[in-house]
Design goal:
This protein has 6 helices and 13 strands. The protein is an alpha/beta fold.
Length: 212
């Protein structure tokens, strides 16, 4: 059960339908990749109800009118490599002008702790709403470290999106960064002894890129 004010479990029926597809071990790579994009788009729609906006004037065929649009240069997407890349295109379909950065984190298979190997972020990222994305929030180590890297660079408005999460990862991220809004499509049961989410969907990166 979610006990953290900064954690939002979306649990939308359309997302649940799509989750059933990607959980299936028989789902092929193309379908898996496409559905990940679709879920990411739905999550972005749900999690960005407070998107920064600005007012402009447009002229309809009948008259001039003031309208609200997404504020220019206000959003950055930062996928945690490599699996997070699978979510980027879905979010860009809603926010095509968003800037995209990358943070590379890999898991030490012995300690299960994250190790950073790459970080490249857009200019003036500290002035943007930053959406950190990773399909799986397992132990929470990579998520916590990625958010910490962004905070070191002055980012103050950060959202974290994960398609599937384990309670252990949610708790670690929520406690480490209570000022970060965490959005999860589905909260699964637990982690196994290898740090994988149960029931989960296996290794998201391998299934997105067909490397296993």
């Amino acid at each position: 059960m979610n006990q953290f004010k900064n954690v939002h479990i979306l649990d939308h029926p359309l997302i649940r339908h799509k989750l059933a597809i990607i959980r299936d071990k028989n789902t092929d790579t193309k379908t898996f990749r496409d559905v990940i994009k679709e879920i990411a788009m739905l999550m972005a729609y749900e999690s960005f109800k407070d998107v920064p906006t600005q007012e402009i004037e447009v002229e309809t065929p009948l008259e001039k009118t003031k309208q609200t649009i997404v504020k220019e240069n206000s959003i950055a997407i930062v996928p945690i490599l490599r699996a997070g890349l699978g979510m980027v295109d879905g979010i860009l379909s809603l926010f095509p002008a968003a800037k995209v950065g990358h943070i590379g984190m890999c898991r030490n298979e012995e300690t299960l702790e994250p190790e950073e190997y790459y970080c490249k972020l857009p200019a003036n990222i500290d002035e943007k709403v930053v959406m950190v994305v990773d399909p799986m929030l397992a132990t929470g180590g990579s998520a916590c470290d990625a958010v910490a890297q962004l905070k070191k660079r002055g980012c103050k408005n950060i959202k974290f999106l994960a398609i599937i999460a384990a309670p252990e990862g949610v708790e670690k991220l929520a406690k480490a960064h209570p000022d970060v809004s965490v959005f999860v499509s589905m909260l699964d049961r637990c982690l196994n002894e290898h740090g994988y989410i149960l029931p989960g969907l296996g290794d998201a990166g391998d299934r997105i890129f067909g490397t296993k």
